[in-house]
Structure formats: structure tokens, C-alpha cells
Design goal:
mainly alpha, 54 residues, 3 helices
């Protein structure tokens, strides 16, 4: 769900020159995975960081 939205944001950022060229699908997959972990409070458990800080 998140991955396609994140990928679109990355693609748009690269097209506008705001982001350097990256493998958008891979970057979106990594970012989406972290977003899900933050929402599940797994990052907070592992790092002690609040959702907002993470």
C-alpha cells in the first residue's frame, strides 16, 4: 500500500531534480518497511525513539 505512494513521491522528486537518481522501487520498499515498523511500535521498542522522532 505505502510502497506505490512512496515510489511515486521518489519518482516525482527525481524528475524535479530534488532527489538524485536512485532505484526508486528499492528505495520505496525500504522506506515503506520502516514506516510499517514505526506504526507497529517496533522501532520504538528497538531504539527507544518515539514515532515522531523516528
Amino acid at each position: 500500500m505505502f510502497r506505490k505512494t512512496v515510489q511515486r513521491l521518489i519518482d516525482d522528486g527525481m524528475a524535479s531534480g530534488a532527489f538524485r537518481e536512485v532505484h526508486a522501487i528499492f528505495a520505496a520498499e525500504v522506506i515503506s518497511s520502516v514506516m510499517v515498523r514505526i506504526q507497529r511500535r517496533q522501532v520504538a521498542s528497538a531504539t527507544g525513539l518515539s514515532d515522531a522522532v523516528a
